[in-house]
Specification:
Layout lengths: L1 H14 L1 E4 L8 E4 L2 E6 L8 H19 L6 E8 L5 H11 L7 E6 L9 E8 L1
Parallel strand pairs: 4-5
Antiparallel strand pairs: 1-2, 2-3, 3-6, 4-6
Helix pairs in contact: 2-3
Length: about 130
């Protein structure tokens, strides 16, 4: 019986969902099955795409540190970029930031973002 309960407790722990700073519309981040889900937007909205990307990546570093992970554990990144012309600038910031030897799967999508000052938005999935 004790072994069965331990397996059930382990399954419940793995299947639990932890919402970081939940609000009515969204949570800051979600942890499920030892995996972190997070979307970062820049805080420096008057800067260019390279600076906004660097800022959004720094915000990712902060949230990953907060939950006990780091950028070397990122599995997948989706980058939403408003202007295709900003692709080289975004890549400069990304290349300066990404963990050497630990680059995640990544795609970049051109998208109109909800705040007209956003030049970039980055969605990540990371292991704990």
């Amino acid at each position: 019986m004790a072994g069965w309960q331990a397996k059930l407790d382990q399954k419940e722990t793995l299947m639990s969902i932890t919402r970081i700073d939940p609000e009515h519309r969204m949570s800051e981040a979600i942890i499920h099955n030892e995996t972190v889900y997070y979307t970062s937007v820049p805080e420096n909205l008057d800067d260019d795409a390279e600076a906004q990307t660097a800022n959004a990546l720094a915000v990712i570093d902060n949230i990953l540190t907060r939950v006990g992970s780091d950028k070397s554990r990122i599995l997948d990144a989706t980058i939403f970029l408003v202007n295709l012309e900003d692709f080289p600038a975004m890549n400069r910031a990304w290349d300066a930031w990404v963990s050497p030897g630990n680059a995640p799967v990544r795609c970049t999508v051109q998208a109109n973002l909800m705040n007209p000052k956003y030049k970039v938005e980055i969605k990540i999935i990371a292991a704990m």
